[in-house]
Write a structure and sequence with these properties.
By secondary structure, the chain is an alpha/beta fold. Helices cover about 50% and strands about 10% of the residues. It has helices at about 15-25, 40-55, 70-85, 95-100, 105-115, 130-135, 150-155, 170-185, 185-205, 210-220, 235-240; strands at about 35, 60-65, 90-95, 120-125, 145, 160-165.
């Protein structure tokens, strides 16, 4: 929660903390609450980690700092400080398309060896070779999650464990069926389901995410509101493209 789709960059620390508290109160022990605490400031990220833990988070997500363009050694120190702030499991969120910097597999796995509560990665580099390298070299128990909906099935094929998605706010049942089919060895069925989701995924990402998915959730009866500026409204032409696609996921 409070990742890219949750518009973390426009939430202040008090809002993030209250969000964790509210979600945890709502789900109790029926779900695991993973709170993004990553910022471009290590001190602020550490404080966010402590406050999220106190508010009831079960685990933390920490995105690679954006705009700063940290070095690999800087990222090692940054994420190490977050990991040392609480005993909670920490998942590193690598999304160089937004943060510019890319945490390399060697840096990530060195971090996990030095900080045992660094438990996994949300990999949104779009680089299947990088994902496969992490899967090959990681220690047992370290989880690799795809961060791009359209790469979930290819990521499973190279050994990923799961997905942290965007389109899945709308089509989680279809993605679960795809996952189950793949794990059962029915790759043909998994590929068929994958192909059937591409039109929705393409439309959702035809403009900056999460503009599309928040609009779609509102259309389906979820009071998601609109994005905070500087993200603006969904263009009318894209709304016309998305609207008929949502019928398959209603109910």
């Amino acid at each position: 929660m409070a990742g890219s789709t949750g518009e973390s960059q426009t939430l202040d620390l008090d809002e993030r903390t209250e969000l964790v508290r509210a979600v945890k109160a709502g789900v109790g022990e029926t779900a695991v609450v993973i709170a993004n605490v990553g910022t471009s400031d290590t001190r602020a990220s550490v404080e966010g980690a402590k406050r999220a833990a106190a508010a009831g988070a079960d685990a933390l997500l920490a995105v690679v700092p954006w705009y700063n363009k940290p070095t690999q050694s800087g990222m090692l120190a940054h994420f190490g400080a977050i990991a040392d702030a609480t005993p909670l499991p920490v998942i590193v969120y690598n999304i160089p398309g937004r943060s510019v910097a890319n945490i390399l597999p060697a840096t990530l796995l060195d971090l996990a060896r030095k900080h045992r509560n660094v438990a996994g990665v949300k990999e949104s580099s779009g680089d299947l070779k990088q994902i496969a390298t992490i899967v090959r070299d990681k220690e047992p128990g370290f989880r690799v999650f795809a961060g791009d909906d359209h790469l979930f099935l290819p990521s499973l094929a190279v050994g990923a464990d799961g997905l942290v998605g965007v389109a899945t706010h709308l089509n989680s049942r279809e993605f679960r069926r795809m996952y189950d089919a793949y794990r059962a060895g029915d790759t043909r069925e998994a590929a068929c389901i994958h192909s059937g989701q591409l039109a929705l995924i393409d439309a959702l990402f035809a403009t900056t995410s999460p503009i599309g998915v928040k609009w779609a959730m509102n259309q389906m009866g979820f009071k998601a509101g609109r994005c905070r500026l500087p993200l603006d409204e969904l263009p009318d032409a894209l709304a016309d493209r998305l609207r008929p696609l949502l019928d398959a996921y209603a109910g």
